[in-house]
Every structure is written in C-alpha cells, then in structure tokens.
Design a protein that fits this description.
By secondary structure, the protein is α/β, with parallel strands linked by helices. The protein is 50% helix and 10% strand. A four-stranded parallel beta sheet has the order 4-3-5-6, with helices on both faces. Helix 5 links the parallel strand 3 and strand 4. It starts with a helix and ends with a helix.
C-alpha cells in the first residue's frame, strides 16, 4: 500500500478532537500514535492496546508525518486530488490549487450534480471530496460503501487563515 492509499486512513472531522487528524474516524489521534512510537512503544504493543487499530493504521500515521515533514522542508507536500462540491466554494478550490493540488470543481461539470454522482465521480477518479454538506457522510453509510475521505469546515477555516 503506497502513501496515497495509506493517507486515506487519516481523517479530519471537526466534531472529533476539534478537527485534529484521527485514524479512520476513530477517537485515536494521529499525534498520539506518533508520540507512542517516538517513546519507542512497539507497533505490536500499540496494536494490542488499541484493538481497533490495524498495522496499516500505524503505517498511515508515519506516512502522514512524512508528508508534513516534506511540506515543511520543501514548501510543498504530497499532491492530493480533490473534488470540491459547489457548496464548499470557489475560494477554497482556488486555495487548494495554489497549494499545488489537483482540483476539480463540481460546478464546472454540473452544478446540479446529485450526491451519489459526486460520490461515484470521486471514487472513479480517486479524489477526496471537499464539502460542507453534513448529510454527505450519511449517504456513504446508507450505501454501505467503504469510508471515503471528505473534508469540510475544518479545511475551509484553514484556507481562510492561510493568507493572514
């Protein structure tokens, strides 16, 4: 599993730990897992202490850390593929693009696109959905799909403060 696949396990939800990155939406912070590894706690011990975690989750935390280090070191980071929903706005899409990401906007394809079509498009193109539609997560659960990555108000807030 490459870093891009691993990073899909890292989720951000403003309602969990104030939007800090967690593992697969669980109440287990990435930073806590990295701190344990830093304290030389073995991955096997972490997995036994946190039975909901999988070995790939620990690898995902390390991939996330590598991405942050690369961003600090090179002023960039891992290029991600986003699909920005109409309700998230052009300002956010432009900001993501300025950060060097591959961004497609729903409004350019079809401003009346339904949620299920947005979900299918994101899955087909391997994109992270950026939306403020709070019901979107329910669609994923109701359809019984594997969790997909979706960012909402947290990322929007960061983009507004990135420029000052």
């Amino acid at each position: 599993m490459d870093d891009r696949q691993l990073l899909k396990r890292i989720t951000v939800n403003p309602k969990i730990f104030g939007g800090k990155p967690t593992i697969r939406g669980l109440r287990i912070k990435v930073e806590s897992t990295l701190a344990l590894l830093e304290q030389e706690v073995t991955p096997d011990k972490i997995l036994s202490d946190y039975p909901d975690l999988e070995p790939e989750d620990i690898r995902a935390c390390l991939a996330y850390e590598r991405c942050l280090v690369a961003k600090d070191r090179h002023g960039g980071g891992m290029k991600m593929r986003f699909l920005v929903d109409v309700c998230a706005g052009k300002e956010l899409a432009d900001w993501l693009r300025e950060q060097g990401h591959d961004v497609k906007e729903v409004w350019k394809r079809d401003p009346r696109m339904t949620d299920d079509k947005i979900l299918n498009l994101a899955k087909a193109e391997g994109r992270v959905i950026v939306t403020v539609d709070k019901d979107f997560g329910e669609l994923v659960v109701v359809q019984g799909e594997k969790p997909i990555s979706a960012l909402s108000e947290c990322l929007m807030s960061q983009s507004r403060f990135a420029n000052g």
